[in-house]
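Quick check before the chapter quiz. The format below is the same one you will see on the exam, so make sure you can read both the input and the output lines.
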Amino acid sequence: MAANEVDSTLLKLESACSDLRTLLQSSAELGKDLEEMDKQFDSIDETLSTAARRVAPLQSLSMAAKALETRINRAVSPALDLLHSFKLSESFQGKLVELSDKLSIEKNPRKRVKKLLKYVQCVDQLNEALNLISRDREPMIQKLQEVVEFLSRTKATDQYRTERLKETLITLRALYESEVDAMKFDGLLDEALLNLQDEFEIMLQQMKHQNIGEQQADDEAVQSVPVVSELGTEMEVEVLRRIAETLAANDCLDICIDIFVKVRYRRAAKALMRLNPDYLRTYTPEEIDGMEWESLEIAISLWIQHFELAVKTVFVSEKRLCKQVLGGLPEVLIWLECFVKIADKIMAVFFRFGEGVARSNREPQKLFKLLEMFDSLEKLKLEFTEIFEGESGADICIRFRELEKLLVHASSKVFWEFGLQIEGTSDGFAPPQDGSVPKLVRYAVNYLKYLTTETYSAPMAKVLRTEQIWKAGILSKLETDENLLKDAISNTMEALQRHIESKSSSYKDKILPHIFIMNTHWYIYMRSRNTELGKLLGEQYMKQKYKSIAEESAYMYQWQAWGPLVRLLEKEESEEQDTKATTAFVRGKLEAFFKCFNEISQRHAGGYSIPDPDLRAQLRGATVKLVVPVYSEFLNKHSTLLSGKSYVSPESLQGLVGQVFNGTDRTGNGRLKRQESKERVPARNSVSVEGDLKSLRRSRSKYIDV
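Here is the expected output.
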């Protein structure tokens, strides 16, 4: 067992030794192979090193070629775009020439406007193409410059080619600078812009204000509400707007504005000239004072109408056109400035006439025209400030307010001086010799009645309130318009009353002062009652101030004129018992009675006047009641003594008294005067309401020529 195990172990050892010998042999062979591989690796490494040394220059050339390719591509792309822009500009120029030819031969206005719009669009396209060329030329040349510099720096090509490229680049730069400038400022674009300026002016001239002045032949038609008309069609306005924007985009904004302002000013002025405003040539205060009153009245009325027409029609249309055409320009408010330039000279002409009227002589009849002017400005104030809005219209609005101030000052001065003129006539002018109502009283009453009508009372009250604010300040306590006007009118009425009292004291006849006061106060009361003047002052005021004084003066007249006649028959009877003596005494009283009656009749026929028919009728009735009953009683009482001789019956005496009062309806020269008709309402353009006051229209004296 043991021997077998030993044998088995030895066999294993031998087998292991045999494996070791085999392994050693394999290791020896592997070592040889490794040595051979090392030799091969060394050979490959040497070969690679040689190849690397040979490939290195090619690698540098490859990198340079890529860099050059990048720079060339960067330069070629903008160059191609630039060439495309040149082609576009060339095509637009050809199209522009074609459109220009078509435009020159087109006669139909509507078709011509459409072609003109296409022409403007083509000009804009050409301008855009030239702008692209101007914008892209510098970047393109800069990229070519980079390529040349790269070639020169890297020596990617020979020196000869590099120099040729440099010369070409310099030539190209100079060519672009000269060619592009020529295309923009000396080429078709410049010519097209000149054509657009001409078309712009022509189209603006063709836009006229319609219906201005066509209704002037009819006096009633001028009172119609002004109608704002469109100056052009939508297409025409659109073309003008596009032309303005095109001119502005090509540095022609100043030219565009000059054309617009010049043409539209002429058009607006020409439209207003169709109204024949020749009166505006007379505008200084001295020239206005030299005008006939009727001519000045007409001129002021026309000024009011034309001023309103200019503001509400002409300037509204012009402002709208300015905004439509110039409102899209980069300068946002340029259109407002243009509109103000158009209106400024025209408004200056209107303003200077109004200022001349306000500064001219302050004559009483001028008050109503001044109030009409002031009222028209007040009604226009809001619309005027809206039309001339913003900083651009500030100067015109200031002058508008200054004119209003002048009118307020002039109106108040005329009114207050009117009262002073009434009192100022107390010296140097005798009252009417027959005690009738003087022209001044008639003029003053009708003047104040006219002033208190609805047309003039409101503006007059506003003038008085404005004047009060100037004097007392806006924070002071102000009277109502009605109270202000009432106080002012009352002051003038009191001045008139003082004038009447002063005149009455200059009569030498004892009866005439009472007739004069009675006539004047009755006239004032009757002409004022049931009118706006009477309503303003109040019925109680009118009765107390005028009616009661007239009635008192009537009583005093009756007592002074007819009292002595009545007292002749009321004297004590004779104490004589002799019948003959008593008869003679009674008859003597009757003779004295009729002698006195004849004297009274003669005085009334030749020197007394009671023009008012109602007052005359009342006095006649009162006098009949005073005289006839006393006379009738006297006849009845002494009828036995007076028998055998005929005397005037009471009925006949009543007729004679009536004849006395019928004879008082006279003028100062004794001629019969026609019955006064009911008071006539004065026309708007006339202050005088009675035929004999027409001479009062234009007084040159210090006082009112009455």
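If your answer matched, good. The two ends are 188 Å apart (CA to CA).
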